[in-house]
Amino acid sequence: MRIEVDSVILEADNDKEIQEPLKNAYEGRKDLFCLCSLGRPRLYLAKVEDTYVSKRWPHTGHEHDPSCDHYEPKLNPGQGVMGDAITENTDTGEFTLRVNFAFSKALPKGSKSKDDEKKEPVVKQGDAKASNPSFGLQSILSFLWEQARYNRWYPKMEGKRHWGNVSYNLKEAASHITTKGVKLSERMFIAQRLTEKNGRYINAELATFKHSLKNTKGKKTKLGILIDQFNGIGQQGNLFQIYLKNLPNAPIMLTDKSMAGLERKFESQINAFDYGANVIAIAQVGLTDYGDLVYERLGLLVVDSNFLPFYGMHDKELIDQAVAERRRFIKPMRYELNDHISIPGITLIDTEEPIDIFVDASTTDEPFEPVTDDPYRIWQPMNPNGRDLPEAISSDTRIDATSPLESDAQDTSEIDPFDEPVFEPQPEAVVGEDDSGEMELTNTPPVSASA
Predict the structure, then answer these.
(1) Which residues make Cβ contacts (< 8 Å) with residue 352, sequence separation at least 6?
(2) Domain around 34
(3) Is 48 a domain residue?
(4) Which of 2, 17, 376, 402 has an alpha carbon within 20 to 30 A of 53's alpha carbon?
């Protein structure tokens, strides 16, 4: 990374190597610029606990070079619909999200709480024309996924992603997000990967989360958010249960009425799980007097073996091809956009300029023309001549703002600016295990989604 502060150029692998000059710049309110491109996009400094971190200025991600860690595509249709439901504090680097659901539930009729609040307006999920957009559960999971950078792919990530580091980075992302005046991480439990060594640790974390949901007499019922790998739906007696992979002894209870609505809304995601896909669940839950988790609402995100999200068969085909061809790309996320709204399948970032790849799986002769002002290509899975991706450029052809002119440039052929950024640390609870170290669960309940 190369950044400029007061006409001084700082070079380092990461912010931790240049803490002293960053501290001086933060305290002196100095302007920072990223030297990844000739445009020198602006940065800001945030103090996260005792560490000074450089961050891209809001809405400038597309001004960075695609090889830069600060780069974001100009087109982000899903997040773009959220509008001012996302605010970013350029002093702290924290995000505030406006959500369309409450974290408490009214008491049964006739039991009035002293803390009754006016009901907040709820924006219809997936409505791109909503005048007051806000986050539902699906959008929160999508935003966390982007902040934890699991919608990005570099070839060096192959074989390095598992639920242990995914859950760790989701927790880290949640710790920098506030909803309704409270840190999201304080309302949320993200289950880490269950192994033979850390079962007690997970159970203790779950017990702490449940304790935070315990009801106080005369107060509204508290609700929290839980994230884990979906493990199917079953039935026990008159109740249905949502099973979670790393919490085999803590299913989420729901009624047959709730189950009917859930099956209608998430039919494709549940079918994908039945056919072997990895599905991530985000659930808002309450707690019974006996300590059982109770369903309130749900979001499901289908991901591949590399935890890259996909939204259908041809979407996954495109991602599989890009991974197999060792391409570098970003996967745009739908948030809660309606299915009929077309978004890029991937955005290639190893080309001369970023290129959006749209999937055209139609069988008609009508031309497919996406609504975009950015460079794009059409990928046609059913056309043998329409499946090629734009050619990647060699890594030594980019010039940053500190480089000499191209004719005088030094040989940088051994430097790869697309090297994977370091942002996926291994959580302490699973250190020393191999990447496949998942515990064989003999007490896992049945996982048939059609039960």
Answers:
(1) 393, 397
(2) 2-63
(3) yes
(4) 402
The per-residue pLDDT for range 227-238, each reduced to its tens digit, is: 999 999 999 888
Contact call for residues 138 and 311 (beta carbons, < 8 A): no
Q: How many domains does the chain have?
A: 1
Please check whether residue 450 lies inside any domain of the structure. no
Q: Is residue 275 part of a domain?
A: no
Across the beta sheet with 355-359, the strand order is 152-153, 329-330, 346-348, 355-359, 376-379
d(CA 132, CA 84) in angstroms, rounded, equals 8
Residue 218 is predicted with a pLDDT of: 61
Identify the CA nearest to 308 among candidates 286, 331, 290, 287: 331
Three-class HEC string of the chain: CEEEECCEEEECCCHHHHHHHHHHHHHCCCCEEECCCCCCCEEEEEEECCEEEEEECCCCHHHCCCCCCCCCCCCCHHHHCCHHHEEECCCCCCEEECECCCCEECCCCCCCCCCCCCCCCCCCCCCCCCCCCCECHHHHHHHHHHHCCCCEECHHHCCCCCHHHHHHHHHHHHCCEEECCEEHHHCEEECCCCCCCCHHHHHHHHHHHHHHCCCCCCCCEECEEEEEEEEEEEEECCEEEEEECCCCCCCEEECHHHHHHHHHHCHHHHHHHHCCCEEEEEEEEEECCCCCEEEEEEEEEEECCCCCECCCHHHHHHHHHHHHCCCCEECCCCCCCCCCCCCCCEEECCCCCCEEEEECCCCCCCCCCCCCCCCEEEECCCCCCCCCCCCCCCCCCCCCCCCCCHHHCCCCCCCCCCCCCCCCCCCHHHCCCCCCCCCCCCCCCCCCCCC
11-57 residue pLDDT tens: 888 888 888 888 888 888 888 899 988 889 999 888 887 888 898 88
| Residue 355 is assigned to a structural domain of this protein | no
What are the tokens at 228?
A: 């884990």
Q: Are 325 and 112 in contact (CB under 8 A)?
A: no
